[in-house]
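Researcher: Quick sanity check before group meeting.
Model: Go ahead. Protein one:
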Amino acid sequence: MAIIGGGIIGICAAALLSEAGRSVTVFDRTGICEETSSGNAAAFAFSDVLPLAHKGMIRQLPKWLADPLGPLAIPPAYLPKLLPWLIRFWRAGAAKHYETSLATQAGMMKLAEAEWMSLLDRSGTRPMLREEGSLEFYESEAEFRASLPGWAERQRFGIGFRHIEGEEMAALQPGLSPRFVKGTFVPGWKTVADPKLLGKAVWAYAEKLGARFEHARVERVEAGADGATIVLADGTRRTASKLVIAAGAWSHLLAKNLGDRIPLETERGYNTTLPSSAFAVKRQLIFSGHGFVITPLQTGLRVGGAVELGGIDRPPNFARSKAMLEKAKRFLPGLDPSGGREWMGYRPSLPDSLPVIGAARAPNVYYAFGHGHLGLTQSAATGRLIRDLVLGQTPPLDLTPFRPQRF
């Protein structure tokens, strides 16, 4: 069987299918975890159960769009193309969908944590896990109070946290600007040493089990009762008994070949990775009011986040990564901003904040894409669900909310 996409979703599916004895070939135009999966914020965000559509983003839209370098940007020329997606996003955030969306995301996160902890052990990658927790900061009492309903919802699902201030906050992150009056510490929050290195290590495990990689650009796909055909950019064809499309932000283009129109949009994210010596950051720091995080990695200090709804064809606007770095200097006085590497990646996002996991209209094809900000977090769970679908086993979650045809 074949998987299109060598990012973290595709390789987790490859690892679990290889464990089940399937012969798997992964196709990718670049390599294993060389694109969006290489530059993310390195978080296992298992406690992030609030769907993006319900986080008040629509209310913040006018304020954020007024700042071209703020947490959210939409290039004016792209707005007409984006408008149908924004309308779907607005509808998904309606109160009547809240409980179902929250329960679905919480269930997915519970499975994600269990599957990742197990996969880390089986693949020998547990030493790459970091369990220092996270710190989220607030610049005013009003901002802190506005966060409380979200924390109350997390508490419903057994997620531990404590609100902090003063000396305790300073002890958990020395050198923080006094502009932050309160914070929330989540002790169970996890990160990884480096997302690209973790992905390559999981792939090495899959390779030992027999998985293969083919460096190729996929032009289109076809499917029939006897299996699937992959047409490569050089005109050659590959056949497979079953096919998984896990090509991130490009997945909907392949799905369209098969008669599935899926409203995927791309949240372009930016970061700068500084040398580790830039500042002694103890754990992931979350500045939600500004839409970015700072993560200490084995390979440096990563300052990144924000959202630019701009599709897959526009050139990067690295003024956005520079703006986050300027804020980081103010938030952590003493931060050395020199020697950084800028990066931009494509988060494949669906308007209801849930991925597409399930069978295509065409036979023998499955979809696994659209995880937005949570691709790394939910990748092992997605691999488990895809494995069960391919093997004809009953998955541990009700997949109805993730159906490709729900739109």
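Researcher: Fine. The other one?
Model: Protein two, sequence then structure:
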Amino acid sequence: MNVWLLPLIAMAAVQAFVGLCLFAIPVIAPQAASDLGVDPGLLGLYTAVVFTAAIPASLGAGGLIARWGAIRTCQACLLAAAGAALLSASALPVAFLLGALALGFAFGPETPASTQLLSRLTPPEKRPLVFSLRQTGNQFGGMAAGFAVPLLVLSVGWQASLLVVAGATAVLALVLEPLARRHDGDDRAAPRPAGRGTLKRALDLVAGEPALRRLAMAVCAFSAMQLCLNGFLVSFAVTGLGWSLPLAGTALAVAQGAGLVGRVGWGLVATRWAPPRVILAGLGVAMSVAAALVAIASPGWPVPAFLAVCAAFGLSASGWNGLFVSEVARLAPPGRAGEATGGMLAIAYAGLVAGPALFSLLVAGGFGYSAGYLAAAAAALAGTAALVIPLPPAPTPDLATAAKDTPCA
């Protein structure tokens, strides 16, 4: 058996359960908002808090991995995510805020940790596919939230549903213990980044490489689009299209299922036929078109037609992540893949903060969900431009002037 296979499955599971703890919030939003006496659209600010906390957590991921090891870091992320679900289940506004902060500290290090582990165990030629497979965990988490959480909400209520999610997430943290003992020694044996300089080192690593900088600009916009898809689709279908909660959850599950297909499919395409950067640019255009179609949807649309748009949306807006991670691993210096991923994610999380916050403000301000999806489409097109617009050529030195200005020995 390939040495990377079991760690790949474990890392995908980590992402699935951390994602489930996040995706459960927009699914329970219609009922939870009623109990809390707030507009469902304002719960999008929950995700803004999550990814505000994730920014410093991702920047510090390199230090955590060096101190604990990649899998032990993932176990800590799972426990933080479970704690976030428990806090949110209390239905206290301050507990929701604390839960969002805890979930941010779970999201920040889990992708850098898995990148560090898998980049060490995976041959370079297999990385686009392996990282795409790992990123399918996000889709499994979203599909579980779309199919299972609405049924739990209808049967036991939204608070008990979050308790179930928290318990399952904590159990996975315990299941990973044998893998931690097997693989974490290599990470702890590596040189540790300096303590207080860890955050700056991660950002400097991204800022110092033009290809990483441009990739970060695109991923910032793509991340905002992905979260607007996942965070508001259920509420839009319920309040804007008049769908029932289970049917609206099905729309989210369809989008996540298509994203699952996309992550594996785009990984295969990148491994065999096209460079990841070219595919990422095409997906940027596709997600913008899909978001615009969601924006013009109305209650008169046939259910299959809207579900088809959701599938196209998920295929593009949720299908790019594995290619992004494989590109970071390719461009990062040897042994610093986790640190580079942390720096990139800090920039991506800025989009995850700004996107849902702007979307929520547009909804609360009376502009509606359509305006939010159109704004996300415009941002994704701008991110695509960062990938495809050629870099200006480096200035050619004037040899005559240089010779004139150079003192003779």
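Researcher: One line on it for the slide.
Model: The chain has a mean pLDDT of 84.
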